[in-house]
Automatic annotation (TrEMBL):
This is Peroxisomal bifunctional enzyme. Keywords: Isomerase, Lyase, Multifunctional enzyme. The lineage of its organism: Eukaryota, Metazoa, Chordata, Craniata, Vertebrata. It catalyses: a (3E)-enoyl-CoA = a 4-saturated (2E)-enoyl-CoA; (2S,3S)-3-hydroxy-2-methylbutanoyl-CoA = (2E)-2-methylbut-2-enoyl-CoA + H2O; (3E,5Z)-tetradecadienoyl-CoA = (2E,5Z)-tetradecadienoyl-CoA; (3E)-decenoyl-CoA = (2E)-decenoyl-CoA. In the C-terminal section; belongs to the 3-hydroxyacyl-CoA dehydrogenase family. Gene3D superfamilies: 2-enoyl-CoA Hydratase, Chain A, domain 1. PROSITE patterns: ENOYL_COA_HYDRATASE. One of its GO terms (cellular component) is peroxisome. It comes from Furnarius figulus. GO terms for molecular function: (3S)-3-hydroxyacyl-CoA dehydrogenase (NAD+) activity; delta(3)-delta(2)-enoyl-CoA isomerase activity; enoyl-CoA hydratase activity.
Length: 164
């Protein structure tokens, strides 16, 4: 939603400007990272807000390490946010993908560029063109995530952030 995008933009900028902040962790709520954009918002008039692509670029360009703590699902724009993070931790039951192609839409926040850089062109093309979801274990094998945990992903992400 526009409110989530705006809040993330404000908080990433605030963290970058605050010398006491050493790293940033992005997580979802209620056991889900993000199921992506609400398709109903595509038909609403554009507001003066940051776009998802600009937000992902802002996260990627942060001078502080940014860690995604993925639980549940990281789909569509949610996965693209995670791709902009410097590190990604996933719960063993998490699922990731770019399912918008099944609706006739291409990933719009540069996921089509970031995903191949992480996992290689053949695997990325398969995910991008089919909309298939992958498990956290498969994501680890492909290099999409840095770590898979069975515990609390937020605590694991904080530990990783403290290391880096």
């Amino acid at each position: 939603s526009t409110a989530v995008l705006q809040a993330l933009e404000d908080l990433v900028k605030k963290a970058d400007a605050d010398p006491s902040v050493k790293a940033v962790m992005i997580c979802g709520d209620n056991g889900k990272f993000s199921a992506g954009a609400d398709i109903r918002g595509f038909s609403s008039p554009s507001r003066q807000s940051i776009s998802l692509g600009a937000l992902v670029s802002l996260i990627e360009s942060s001078q502080k390490p940014v860690v995604a703590a993925m639980e549940g699902v990281a789909l569509g724009g949610g996965l693209e946010v995670a791709l902009g993070c410097h590190y990604r931790i996933a719960h063993v039951k998490a699922r990731m993908g770019l399912p918008e192609v099944t609706l006739g839409l291409l990933p719009g926040a540069e996921g089509t560029q970031r995903l191949p850089r992480l996992i290689g062109v053949p695997a990325a093309l398969d995910m991008i063109t089919t909309g298939k979801h992958i498990s956290a274990t498969e994501a680890l094998k492909l290099g999409l995530v840095d770590e898979v945990v069975e515990e609390n992903t937020v605590e694991a992400a904080i530990r990783l952030a403290n290391k880096v």
